[in-house]
Amino acid sequence: MKTRGILRAATHLSGPVGGVNGFSLIEVMIAMFVLAVGLLGLAGLQARAMNAEYESYARGKALFLLEDLADRMVSNTVEVKATAAANTAYNQGNGTGVVTVTPTLRTFGTGTTVTCTSAACCNTATADIDGNGTVIRSERDLCEWHVALRDSASSGGSAVGAMPGIRGCVFLRDATTREYQIDVVWQGRETGATAPAGVTCGAAAISVRRNGVSRRIRFADLDGA
To answer: Per-residue confidence at 102, pLDDT binned at 50, 70, 90?
Structure first.
């Protein structure tokens, strides 16, 4: 009788206390699955946020580079008017579009025939873009713009904040109205990245995610020249 009493007491003590049960294995697995799904969603959101932040940074930098050349041209209207023929100084196009890379119609930045890689080089004969033996102010402007574009480019894709494949183009759209177009393009990160309509700059070199900014600037003929 005493042995049975002890067994009954032991059995009673090993059961649930106060009616509280523990978690089963299936409940733990479900909780882990829900947590994993939430963490994956958070990781994806963070990746999208990082891409959006980079695209915003790249667009701001491209706009700065675009405005840099525009300001140079506005302050040098004499050569803007004097170099309106195709492939002369500020007009690096044929009037209907920009050829990506050729010996005569060139882009600036990556994938170009311009050899200067530093601002100091732009004060030498190497900056003679049209090859006529004379380096004029507009050629120095384009050379320095080219160097600035190169400095914003990636080196093997490892430079922090760099813009892969960045290229710049400038050409005369309309000789009658003296309207120029300046483009800056690069390879973006978002799959939906696209350059503005009518921008052919870098089209042959950047086949996917070609992002870009563009500006048209018109020089009024106030002096009748």
So the answer is: very low
Q: Per residue, what are the HEC states of the chain?
A: CHHHHHHHHHHHHCCCCCCCCCCCHHHHHHHHHHHHHHHHHHHHHHHHHHHHHHHHHHHHHHHHHHHHHHHHHHCCHHHHHHCCCCCECCECCCCCCCCCECCCCECEECCCCCCCCCHHHHHCHHHCCCCCCCCCHHHHHHHHHHHHHHHCECCCCCCCCCECCCEEEEEEEECCCCEEEEEEEEECCCCCCCCCCCCCCCCCCCCCCEEEEEEEEECCCCCCC
What pTM was computed for the model? 0.72
128 in a domain, yes or no? yes
Structural domain includes residue 18: no
Residue 93: inside a domain: yes
With respect to residue 213, please indicate whether it lies within any of the assigned structural domains: yes
Mean pLDDT of 109-127: 84
* Tally of domains in the chain: 1
Residue ranges making up the domain that contains 104: 54-218
